[in-house]
Write a structure and sequence with these properties.
There is one protein chain. The protein is mainly α. Helices cover 57% and strands 1% of the residues. It contains twelve helices and two strands. The protein has a two-stranded antiparallel ribbon with strand order 1-2. β1 and β2 form a beta hairpin. It is globular and about 80 Å long. The N terminus is likely disordered.
Length: 334
């Protein structure tokens, strides 16, 4: 009975409201377009297509770098990184699920959780964190950082895509590269999550549907912090350095407090991040180009108007859009 009543009331109200609004909107639009012509585009009466003179259009205009989406431009860095030899491991020393060693000697090898002392120590640590660290501030962070860690970085450094586009591009590449590399190692080690060993741990969030080792939150955010440091001039590194390192660490640590990762997962993620930054990412041509752009963003003094008007960057005085200053008048002849 209640369903029929609610259905009838909601249907009547929605039908009446939508009918009235649509009738008013389309009626008004129709009457306006009939007086101005057959089209409803707002600028048709001001500028017709056949009014354009191609000789007056600017030439040599490229898409402005400042208008790139940082997340999408970061894919250029990801593509160059993916073409390197970062996955080339030593076949003799590498053992699936136990130890991975790169041909340059870098290795990660998690302590075996099959040993009772190791699993007891890891779970005891997580239970202690559950008892003492699941407070209000941490719980809010854990929930938001599950999918929105970048918000903490933009807040810390006052970043927006318009005021620091190159900086945000580099930091976004840290998330993109960290995601790919982390999934490679997760598949290699196939390590179970803490709740698989001890369901009574009661995780703060649902257990993620991919393996535990290494922690991608630790890997990605450590890498984002390292890339952010590349952008800053020396005087700002002294100001922001400790905060950047602390934030990267805390985001990884929060995943342990949530019961989603063992400490060894977080430690390995940070270890991989430093290896990637030193041996690969810093050497990429795309990264070096964007680092130079990012450093200029932090060293610029005052408001840089051209950044807010990026299409003017390639338009020189004398063009059709920015005419040259008029020549001084000739002096009167006696």
């Amino acid at each position: 009975m209640f369903g029929f009543l609610n259905g009838g009331m909601n249907g009547g109200m929605n039908g009446g409201m939508n009918g009235g609004m649509n009738g008013g909107m389309y009626g008004g639009a129709g009457s306006g377009s009939s007086s101005a012509g057959s089209s409803s585009l707002p600028f048709d009466s001001l500028l017709e297509l056949n009014d354009f003179e191609t000789a007056h259009l600017p030439t040599g205009v490229a898409f402005p770098k400042a208008s790139w989406s940082p997340d999408l431009r970061a894919q250029l860095i990801l593509g160059e990184f993916a073409s390197t030899n970062w996955r080339e491991h030593d076949d003799v020393k590498t053992e699936i699920g136990e130890l991975w060693q790169h041909i340059d000697g870098f290795q990660i090898a998690p302590p075996s959780l099959e040993h009772p002392d190791n699993i007891e120590a890891e779970l005891s640590h997580l239970l202690e964190r559950r008892a003492f660290d699941r407070n209000g501030a941490r719980m809010n962070e854990i929930a938001h950082q599950a999918d929105h860690s970048m918000d903490y970085w933009t807040n810390l450094l006052s970043l927006t895509p318009s005021n620091k586009p190159a900086t945000m591009t580099l930091m976004s590449s840290g998330f993109a590269i960290g995601q790919m590399v982390g999934m490679y190692f997760k598949d290699f080690f196939s390590r179970a999550r803490p709740s698989h060993y001890f369901p009574a741990l009661m995780t703060v969030l649902p257990t993620p549907n991919h393996p535990s080792f290494p922690s991608n939150h630790a890997l990605q955010n450590e890498l984002v912090g390292l890339l952010a440091l590349r952008c800053l001039p020396d005087e700002l590194q002294a100001c922001y350095g400790d905060a950047i390192r602390s934030l990267g660490y805390r985001i990884g640590e929060n995943r342990e407090i949530a019961g989603l990762h063992f400490t060894q997962d977080s430690d390995a993620g940070r270890q991989v991040a430093h290896w990637l930054d030193t041996n690969y990412i810093g050497n990429l041509d795309t990264v070096q180009t964007i680092v130079a752009e990012a450093q200029a963003e932090w060293q610029a003094s005052g408001h840089v108007a051209a950044r807010n008007l990026p299409y003017l960057n390639q338009i020189k005085p004398g063009s059709t859009l920015l005419p040259a200053a008029p020549a001084p008048a000739a002096p009167d002849q006696e």
